[in-house]
Amino acid sequence: MDHGAVWVGPMFAVLLAALVLVAAVTALIGRLGSGRSVATASARAVLQLGVVALLIAAVLQSWWASAGFITLMVLVAAATSARRVSSLRLGWPVLAPIAVGALPICALVVASGTVPLTEVAVVPIAGILIGGAMTATSLAGRRALDELRDRHGEYEAALALGLLPRDAALEICRPHAGQALVPALDQTRTVGLVTLPGAFVGVLLGGGSPVQAGATQLLVLVALLAVEAIAVATTIELAANGLLRRPTPHR
Questions:
Q1: CA angle 192, 195, 197 (to 5 degrees)
Q2: Cα separation values, 9 from 3, 14, 15, 129, 190, Å
Q3: Dihedral angle over CA of 158, 163, 166, 169, nearest 10
Q4: Neighbour-count burial of 113, counting CB atoms closer than 10 A to its CB (0-12 exposed, 13-18 middle, 19+ buried)
């Protein structure tokens, strides 16, 4: 077994099953309402990573295939975030913050020449940035819509004072929805002290020097901050303008 690599064998499967069981049972005992979700998410991860592991070699042989795979990542991220924030039918505008956040920053990183212009370098970077945009969009969207629902009286009062609907909505939802950046900020503040994230470890395992690993991880973290800031700001604007909303509850 290579030093630092995960050994895939029977014990690996046993360990994964045990970890899923611990997470699901803890969620059930703690009445977190997500015990089943833990199991289904884990099962999907196994299936999806298995498929990707079989396809990725072919995908990385062509720029067209890589572009198609990146497009698929954006669409899946948007569908996931839409369901988390609202519903697939009403939540489709989340495609905008995910795409506007991740794709231009990814293009900027590649255009700068700091990342090799190869499929094997661009696709993983794009995936990391799209994933960050998805998470930030989901967190910001849920919190913004929660605030607009729970503090509707304050929204009406702001309108009565003469604020435009967008401005009144922003006064209500912007402060709390902006907290969606907290995970990215904390990860950036504590990198190297609390965690050694995946990009750092991946470069080391790939034979890169510690300096290259640190530079790669720094680039990823700062790019994620930019991506998530754009995604959060765009999501808040969508909510404030009524473009992102939830289904009206039936009475």
A1: 90
A2: 16, 9, 10, 31, 33
A3: -10
A4: exposed
pTM score, two decimals? 0.80
Handedness of CA 171, 173, 178, 182 (dihedral sign): positive
**Single-letter code of the amino acid located at 153:** G
Cα 125-50-222 angle, rounded to 5 deg: 15
* SS3 state of residue 191: strand
Is residue 62 within 8 A of residue 102, CB to CB? The reply is no
What is the SS3 string spanning 59-87? HCCCHHHHHHHHHHHHHHHHHHHHHHHCC
Do 60 and 66 contact (CB within 8 A), yes or no?
yes
User: Residues near 57 by Cβ (< 8 Å), separated by ≥ 6?
Assistant: none
pLDDT digits (tens, 9 = 90+) for 53-95: 777 777 888 888 889 999 999 999 999 999 999 888 888 999 9
What is the identity of the amino acid at 22?
A: V
Q: Which are the contacts of 38, defined by CB distance < 8 A and separation ≥ 6?
A: 20, 23, 24, 27
What does each C-alpha distance from 11 to 42, 46, 49, 53 come to in angstroms?
17, 15, 18, 20
